[in-house]
């Protein structure tokens, strides 16, 4: 199984050294142990053969290898002619945790964390190359602040993590399959929907469908259906003169009384009180002009470079 390293980027990582290497035929990575620094080894072309501890890795074009500190690594076979790769060393800004490719890393809850596998083939290499060239340019610019290079390395980690997580999610079918289910519910929100109907549409059991909603949305299928309908009801209350009863039937609730109960559970107000409270502020609702919170740490500290 592929080992995954999780880095926190609340603070940028610290750049150490980097470069681009053109290897001759028969080149092997030297026998070395990194003293606290992580190394990213990214292939442009050719092949490299690196052993980390007792595990051997074969790297081909656009493969990326993360080498952790405090463990011996060495080339176990000679590379062919015209082998070219990028290399970079950095120190993490906080403790690093590890796991393996499992469900727990598919949807990370910490937005400041990135997941990097031990070995990974980069799909969109052009995006990564641009960031690496910027990092190398910053490192070789004597007038550039060291902090700039730290941020370039952190951006490289973010890009690698994004590409890795995209592949993982696609392999699990989450991105396309589950988003399709949610969009289908939104499109059909004016109809009378049941869990069984949605499950049948996507050829799965109601139990499995609800398991997906609990895992990815932290709610049941029926709650997501009702939540979608109530969002539609809120818009109708603020943009039309339809009565509460008419809106209930417009959204295919079985009766007005049930609609009133569901609306209050979700909105904490009755439909009438909601209309009275928000009618004058509709033009500034989050769908038209979304509220974007200020960064939590914007004034908490300033970082200076030596």
TrEMBL record:
<dbReference type="InterPro" id="IPR014710">
    <property type="entry name" value="RmlC-like_jellyroll"/>
</dbReference>
<keyword id="KW-0805">Transcription regulation</keyword>
<dbReference type="Pfam" id="PF02311">
    <property type="entry name" value="AraC_binding"/>
</dbReference>
<feature type="domain" description="HTH araC/xylS-type">
    <location>
        <begin position="179"/>
        <end position="277"/>
    </location>
</feature>
<keyword id="KW-0804">Transcription</keyword>
<keyword id="KW-0238">DNA-binding</keyword>
<dbReference type="InterPro" id="IPR009057">
    <property type="entry name" value="Homeodomain-like_sf"/>
</dbReference>
<dbReference type="InterPro" id="IPR003313">
    <property type="entry name" value="AraC-bd"/>
</dbReference>
<dbReference type="InterPro" id="IPR018060">
    <property type="entry name" value="HTH_AraC"/>
</dbReference>
<protein>
    <submittedName>
        <fullName>AraC family transcriptional regulator</fullName>
    </submittedName>
</protein>
<dbReference type="GO" id="GO:0043565">
    <property type="term" value="F:sequence-specific DNA binding"/>
</dbReference>
<dbReference type="InterPro" id="IPR037923">
    <property type="entry name" value="HTH-like"/>
</dbReference>
<dbReference type="GO" id="GO:0003700">
    <property type="term" value="F:DNA-binding transcription factor activity"/>
</dbReference>
<dbReference type="Pfam" id="PF12833">
    <property type="entry name" value="HTH_18"/>
</dbReference>
């Amino acid at each position: 199984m592929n080992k995954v390293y999780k880095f926190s980027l609340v603070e940028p990582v610290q750049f150490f050294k980097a470069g681009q290497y053109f290897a001759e035929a028969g080149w092997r990575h030297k026998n070395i142990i990194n003293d606290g620094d992580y190394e990213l080894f990214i292939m442009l072309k050719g092949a490299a053969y690196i052993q980390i501890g007792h595990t051997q890795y074969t790297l081909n074009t656009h493969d990326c290898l993360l080498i952790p500190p405090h463990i011996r690594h060495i080339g176990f076979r000679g590379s062919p002619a015209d082998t070219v790769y990028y290399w970079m060393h950095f120190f993490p800004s906080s403790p690093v945790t590890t796991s393996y490719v499992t469900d727990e890393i598919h949807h990370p809850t910490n937005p400041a964390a990135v997941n990097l596998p031990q070995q990974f083939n980069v799909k969109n290499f052009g995006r990564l190359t641009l960031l690496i060239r910027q990092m190398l340019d910053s490192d070789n610019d004597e007038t550039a602040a060291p902090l700039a290079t730290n941020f370039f390395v952190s951006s490289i980690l973010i890009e690698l993590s994004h590409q890795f997580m995209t592949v993982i999610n696609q392999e699990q079918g989450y991105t396309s399959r589950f988003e399709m289910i949610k969009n289908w519910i939104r499109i059909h929100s004016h109809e009378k929907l049941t869990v069984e109907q949605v499950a049948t549409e996507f050829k799965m059991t109601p139990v499995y469908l609800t398991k997906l909603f609990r895992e990815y949305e932290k709610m049941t299928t029926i709650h997501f259906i009702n939540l979608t309908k109530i969002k539609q009801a809120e818009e109708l209350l603020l943009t039309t003169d339809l009565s509460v009863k008419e809106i209930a039937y417009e959204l295919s609730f079985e009766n007005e009384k049930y609609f009133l109960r569901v609306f209050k559970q979700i909105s904490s107000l009755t439909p009438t009180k909601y209309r009275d409270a928000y009618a004058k502020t509709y033009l500034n609702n989050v769908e038209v002009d979304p509220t974007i919170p200020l960064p939590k740490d914007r004034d908490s500290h300033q970082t200076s470079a030596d």
